[in-house]
């Protein structure tokens, strides 16, 4: 039973996810990887083979997307995409589908198709369009949205949570469960429609973005009254203001033991950066509009995230840095 995996997008998240697949390969399995940035692909290959030598020639970095179809025989079982935006997912998938149609015309309807698993966080209408396109061009292929939560730390530790569309608990196939299990510890089947995985991800990240802003505001309020912020943080952790943003990612340095490695204790380095929080908030508000739903805190939240992201020192650091930013902000 050999399984062939493809992985596209070896950035902050993808490099760790693909590494876990590589480390779990059975001797007959293969992994093919690609990134538009050659350096990312080369660094990936060097780093994973330095800890586990590729004695069975199981890993190959490809130079072009069509090579996932033309270079691999028999064809791949799964291709995971972990790229920035919807336009990248659309481009990659249409390259793969069009190459398959050109190189395999006589057996288009035959055999087992490739399952594309998109773990990028993108807008729902694009994801639904890509799904329809794949199914109409190649009915035996599949495209599912399976976005992740857990950040780069979760990717590194293989503790990601996958939010899976078109799946009920019992409908997740064993090979798919096994593959996602290499990279994560939770699989949440979100329902039978396409796009529901992204709906869960964006609804959650909307909540994260607005609570994070409220936490920054709340700590600045406490500060303005002269409260000891470490004590206030401990208080919040047992009161009704408790949330991931106020406790697990507490923005005040020195509250929790160093071993917890909170970004606030490392000058807000690492973690989930503000500009990605903004990106998900924008996606959530736009997808809400497309769904005739108005997010009451969406536009106001966006206004403040836009302003924070004007400055690279806030845009590129963990979202807890909004606490520091609000402390310096002069409101007009
Ligand atoms: P990243 O920018 O670090 O990595 C993206 C990689 O994709 C880069 O190496 C880039 O060169 C490559 N790429 C871009 N276009 C490509 C294409 N057409 N073909 C092949 N490769 C291409 O981004 P990231 O932080 O790894 O995030 C990837 C996705 O996962 C995004 O949608 C992001 O919102 C989502 N996400 C990120 C986090 C996080 O904490 N970073 C958490 C959950 C979800």
TrEMBL record:
Single annotated GO MF: 3-hydroxyisobutyrate dehydrogenase activity
GO cellular component: mitochondrion
Catalytic activity: 3-hydroxy-2-methylpropanoate + NAD(+) = 2-methyl-3-oxopropanoate + NADH + H(+)
Domain 3-hydroxyisobutyrate dehydrogenase-like NAD-binding: 195-318
6-phosphogluconate dehydrogenase NADP-binding domain location: 5-190
Keywords: Branched-chain amino acid catabolism, NAD, Oxidoreductase
UniProt pathway: Amino-acid degradation; L-valine degradation
Family label: Belongs to the HIBADH-related family. 3-hydroxyisobutyrate dehydrogenase subfamily.
Gene3D superfamilies according to UniProt: N-(1-d-carboxylethyl)-l-norvaline Dehydrogenase, domain 2, NAD(P)-binding Rossmann-like Domain
UniProt cross-references to Pfam families, sorted A to Z: NAD_binding_11, NAD_binding_2
InterPro entries from the UniProt entry: 3-OH-isobutyrate_DH-rel_CS, 6-PGluconate_DH-like_C_sf, 6PGD_dom2, 6PGDH_NADP-bd, HIBADH-like_NADP-bd, NAD(P)-bd_dom_sf
Protein's UniProt name: 3-hydroxyisobutyrate dehydrogenase
The protein's enzyme class: oxidoreductase
One record GO biological process: L-valine catabolic process
EC number: 1.1.1.31
């Amino acid at each position: 039973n050999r399984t062939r995996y493809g992985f596209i997008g070896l950035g902050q998240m993808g490099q760790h996810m693909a590494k876990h697949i590589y480390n779990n390969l059975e001797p007959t399995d293969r992994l093919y990887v690609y990134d538009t940035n050659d350096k990312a692909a080369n660094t990936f290959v060097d780093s994973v083979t330095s800890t586990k030598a590729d004695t069975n020639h199981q890993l190959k970095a490809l130079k072009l997307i069509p090579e996932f179809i033309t270079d691999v025989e028999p064809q791949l079982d799964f291709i995971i995409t972990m790229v920035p935006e919807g336009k990248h997912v659309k481009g990659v998938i249409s390259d793969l589908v069009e190459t398959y149609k050109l190189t395999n015309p006589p057996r288009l309807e035959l055999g087992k198709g490739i399952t594309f698993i998109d773990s990028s966080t993108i807008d729902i209408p694009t994801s639904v369009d890509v799904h329809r396109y794949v199914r109409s061009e190649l009915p035996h292929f599949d495209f599912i949205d399976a976005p992740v939560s857990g950040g780069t730390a979760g990717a590194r530790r293989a503790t990601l949570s996958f939010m899976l569309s078109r799946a009920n608990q019992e409908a997740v196939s064993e090979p798919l469960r096994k593959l996602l299990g290499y990279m994560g510890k939770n699989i949440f089947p979100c329902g039978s429609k396409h796009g529901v995985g992204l709906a869960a991800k964006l609804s959650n990240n909307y909540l994260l973005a607005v609570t994070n802003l409220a936490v920054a505001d709340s700590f600045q309020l406490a500060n303005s009254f002269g409260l000891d912020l470490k004590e206030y943080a401990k208080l919040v952790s047992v009161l009704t203001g408790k949330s991931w943003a106020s406790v697990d990612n507490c923005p005040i340095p020195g509250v929790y033991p160093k071993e917890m490695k909170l970004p606030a204790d490392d000058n807000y380095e690492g973690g989930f950066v503000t500009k990605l929080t903004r990106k998900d908030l924008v996606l959530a508000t736009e997808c809400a509009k497309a769904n005739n739903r108005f997010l009451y805190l969406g536009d106001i939240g966006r206004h403040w995230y836009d302003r924070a992201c004007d400055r690279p020192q806030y845009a590129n650091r963990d979202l807890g840095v909004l606490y520091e930013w609000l402390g310096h902000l002069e409101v007009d």
